[in-house]
Amino acid sequence: MDDKNVKTQFGLTVRKLRLSKNISQEKFAEIVGLHRTYISEVERGTRNVTLINVVKIAKGLEVKTSELFCEMEKEI
Amino acid sequence: MDDKNVKTQFGLTVRKLRLSKNISQEKFAEIVGLHRTYISEVERGTRNVTLINVVKIAKGLEVKTSELFCEMEKEI
Known about the structure:
- By secondary structure, chain A is mainly α.
- Helix content of chain A is 71%, strand content 0%.
- Chain A has one domain (3-75): lambda repressor-like DNA-binding domains (434 Repressor (Amino-terminal Domain), Orthogonal Bundle), CATH 1.10.260.
- The first copy, chain A, is built from five helices and no strands.
- The radius of gyration of chain A is 11 Å and the shape is globular.
- Chains A, B: Residues 14-68 form the HTH cro/C1-type domain.
């Protein structure tokens, strides 16, 4: 999987899980303590998210970080 | 898990898996296409690794990214 695809797949997975919990980007940004624009960029696959924010995002989605990547790997 | 702990736990997990495969830092750096110093910093928990490098590191350890985090979560 090339770099662009990694970011895209991660973003799509975050979006899918967020929507499955009926949380808006604004609400989710508040939950994880990150800016809404940042969340939007992550979901659009334009951000190379750092480890600390990956863990924050997983926590905000109420899944383990491993589960977040399991979900992402299903799509590949 | 606070930010410092996330980096420390990730580094310890990478080191454990690398050593379980009997690969030196030099060899591992070569495999994943990253600098040896960077690998050393990751393992010492001083790097907030990006998503793309997390995936590269997992691939280099011949585990899925989800499995790498499963391993990390065992220690928490």
